[in-house]
Amino acid sequence: MREAPTLNTRGSGNVATRDRGLVWHPYAPLNGPEPYAVSGASGVRLSLSCPDGSSAEVVDAMASWWCAVHGYGHPALNAAAHRQIDDFSHVMFGGLTHEPAVELAERLVAMAPGPMAHVFYADSGSVSVEVALKLALQYQAATGSPQRQRFLTIRGGYHGDTFAAMSVCDPVDGMHSAFPGVLASHLFAPRPPLARVDADGRWTTDEEALDRWTADFRSLAATHAGELAAIVVEPVLQGAGGMRPYDPRCVQVMREVADEHGLLLIADEIATGFGRTGRLFACEWAGVTPDVMCVGKALTGGYLSLAAVLMTSRVGAAITGSSFGALLHGPTFMANPLACAVASASLDLLGDSWAVNVARVASGLRAGLAPALELASVREVRTVGAVGVIQLDRAVDVPAVTAAAVRNGVWVRPFRDLVYTMPPYVTTDDDIATICAGMVAAVREVHQ
């Protein structure tokens, strides 16, 4: 067993040294590699103090885990935050309301795919999934099927780190396989076959594999229909489960199956929403309207944690007409006014520019990552919208690849066998080229 590191005395040493052994980081041990310390963030760049004592300015290829779509320190978002702080930064949402929450809800239902009618605010993406799952169970009970308490999803999915969300993540290859005894048992259909999308928005996949998947999905749903409450899915692109795109026709099949068996379709658009895949919401690739949709991450442009659960009027009416009359959840910071105000400003910035910017970023990623295919360790290069992936034939040496990328002026956070980028939409063509060149150079240096 590795010994826990000795804690540092408060205030002594640099921030990264003081951090190590004191602060937990995501999916990392307390005595893991020393982190990079951020001393500034502006535009699409981070100023770093590196573990070797050097300093670096890097292009952020991760948009801070996909949320900082407008970059850092944007004047419009800063101004929105200051205005709201001058009014009030937080009030409880129980029995009270306020303009930022109502305005944002109006905008979300107006821009969502199909006839969304109601909004429930949550603290984070994971919590929004928890709420959506609760909502589906309450819906089934309210409509006379309280025995429907399981969920159908697909292998390779990721929906968050809280317990109900973990239970619908991949049960074997996912990060949460360490909790098998306490997670609810749900149904997992096979992963849809890998697909590709070209610059004109045309998807291609193995048609025979797609037919087999469709038959398997329909059969599994039919066999267990009487116990299922909903289908839960990341439409078109599985994120933390492998950055894996699949054919929109699979989402169409899920919609048809949900309708056939009286299930809700829950779309987890936390990572894919607000333009990331090349459509404002990934469901639009399939021409599908979900019954429930979770959004987060890019919602506030990376300024504050906020998520939302959108639902149709049919779902809202069922809950309202139930014995409880309410959706049984209520976070302390629900509809935080500061976060809602910044979110509305973020939607203003998205405007019509997101589509042009995402298409431009996509073009740069396709061209810039293609040279990685010349490397022996690279199994595949794929892109969808403003997402670019280099998949290796082995697990990534994360500390080494990260350090190599920083030396090439780029911040990445690889995982599993993937070195990938989901940059801010405002990243310039030159900076996209820097990101791609840095990723390729890092893979070449570490993995040949």
UniProtKB/TrEMBL annotation:
<feature type="modified residue" description="N6-(pyridoxal phosphate)lysine">
    <location>
        <position position="297"/>
    </location>
</feature>
<protein>
    <recommendedName>
        <fullName>Adenosylmethionine-8-amino-7-oxononanoate aminotransferase</fullName>
        <ecNumber>2.6.1.62</ecNumber>
    </recommendedName>
</protein>
<feature type="binding site">
    <location>
        <position position="268"/>
    </location>
    <ligand>
        <name>pyridoxal 5'-phosphate</name>
    </ligand>
</feature>
<dbReference type="InterPro" id="IPR005814">
    <property type="entry name" value="Aminotrans_3"/>
</dbReference>
<comment type="pathway">
    <text>Cofactor biosynthesis; biotin biosynthesis; 7,8-diaminononanoate from 8-amino-7-oxononanoate (SAM route): step 1/1.</text>
</comment>
<feature type="binding site">
    <location>
        <position position="413"/>
    </location>
    <ligand>
        <name>substrate</name>
    </ligand>
</feature>
<dbReference type="Pfam" id="PF00202">
    <property type="entry name" value="Aminotran_3"/>
</dbReference>
<dbReference type="GO" id="GO:0004015">
    <property type="term" value="F:adenosylmethionine-8-amino-7-oxononanoate transaminase activity"/>
</dbReference>
<dbReference type="GO" id="GO:0009102">
    <property type="term" value="P:biotin biosynthetic process"/>
</dbReference>
<dbReference type="InterPro" id="IPR015424">
    <property type="entry name" value="PyrdxlP-dep_Trfase"/>
</dbReference>
<keyword id="KW-0963">Cytoplasm</keyword>
<feature type="binding site">
    <location>
        <position position="297"/>
    </location>
    <ligand>
        <name>substrate</name>
    </ligand>
</feature>
<feature type="binding site">
    <location>
        <begin position="125"/>
        <end position="126"/>
    </location>
    <ligand>
        <name>pyridoxal 5'-phosphate</name>
    </ligand>
</feature>
<dbReference type="InterPro" id="IPR015422">
    <property type="entry name" value="PyrdxlP-dep_Trfase_small"/>
</dbReference>
<keyword id="KW-0093">Biotin biosynthesis</keyword>
<keyword id="KW-0032">Aminotransferase</keyword>
<feature type="binding site">
    <location>
        <begin position="331"/>
        <end position="332"/>
    </location>
    <ligand>
        <name>pyridoxal 5'-phosphate</name>
    </ligand>
</feature>
<feature type="binding site">
    <location>
        <position position="158"/>
    </location>
    <ligand>
        <name>substrate</name>
    </ligand>
</feature>
<dbReference type="InterPro" id="IPR005815">
    <property type="entry name" value="BioA"/>
</dbReference>
<comment type="function">
    <text>Catalyzes the transfer of the alpha-amino group from S-adenosyl-L-methionine (SAM) to 7-keto-8-aminopelargonic acid (KAPA) to form 7,8-diaminopelargonic acid (DAPA). It is the only aminotransferase known to utilize SAM as an amino donor.</text>
</comment>
<dbReference type="GO" id="GO:0005737">
    <property type="term" value="C:cytoplasm"/>
</dbReference>
<feature type="site" description="Participates in the substrate recognition with KAPA and in a stacking interaction with the adenine ring of SAM">
    <location>
        <position position="27"/>
    </location>
</feature>
<keyword id="KW-0808">Transferase</keyword>
<keyword id="KW-0663">Pyridoxal phosphate</keyword>
<feature type="binding site">
    <location>
        <position position="330"/>
    </location>
    <ligand>
        <name>substrate</name>
    </ligand>
</feature>
<dbReference type="InterPro" id="IPR015421">
    <property type="entry name" value="PyrdxlP-dep_Trfase_major"/>
</dbReference>
<dbReference type="InterPro" id="IPR049704">
    <property type="entry name" value="Aminotrans_3_PPA_site"/>
</dbReference>
<comment type="similarity">
    <text>Belongs to the class-III pyridoxal-phosphate-dependent aminotransferase family. BioA subfamily.</text>
</comment>
<keyword id="KW-0949">S-adenosyl-L-methionine</keyword>
<dbReference type="GO" id="GO:0030170">
    <property type="term" value="F:pyridoxal phosphate binding"/>
</dbReference>
<feature type="binding site">
    <location>
        <position position="65"/>
    </location>
    <ligand>
        <name>substrate</name>
    </ligand>
</feature>
<comment type="subunit">
    <text>Homodimer.</text>
</comment>
